[in-house]
Amino acid sequence: MLATAEPRRTTLELPRRTGAPAPRPVPPAITLDAAQIALIAEEIEAMRPRFQRDGGDIEFDRVEANTVFVRMTGACFGCQLAAVSVSGVQMKLMEALSLPVRVVPVGMGRG
Predict the structure, then answer these.
(1) How far is Cα 95 from Cα 92, in angstroms, rounded to an integer?
(2) Any residues with CB less than 8 A from the CB of 92 and at least 6 apart, and which?
(3) pTM over 0.90
(4) Closest C-alpha to 30, from 22, 21, 40
(5) Domain ranges in the chain?
(6) In this predicted model, what pLDDT tens digit does every residue of 41-60 receive, in sequence order?
(7) β partners of residue 102
(8) Which of 68, 67, 45 is nearest to 57 (CA)?
């Protein structure tokens, strides 16, 4: 009797998991009140001179749930450090509000 060879595997086969992991609970959305939104606008307004000193600018646009939308213009448009600046704004707002918020730049332009 001739032994038949098994076909060669051309792809890596990983062991299959039995049973799906339990889904993580989704935290409830945070809704900011009028006083918190006013504080956000004040904090961003206080940051503007720092941006303007470097030829850029930042303006408060709107809030949706716990997401703060800002408009960055001037030298901030296309700047490689814009993401770092947005992260700094986010940290400052979280410190002022004592709540987690997300800062998202919208409609960036030359101004």
Answers:
(1) 5
(2) 43, 47
(3) no
(4) 40
(5) 34-109
(6) 999 999 999 999 989 999 99
(7) 67
(8) 45
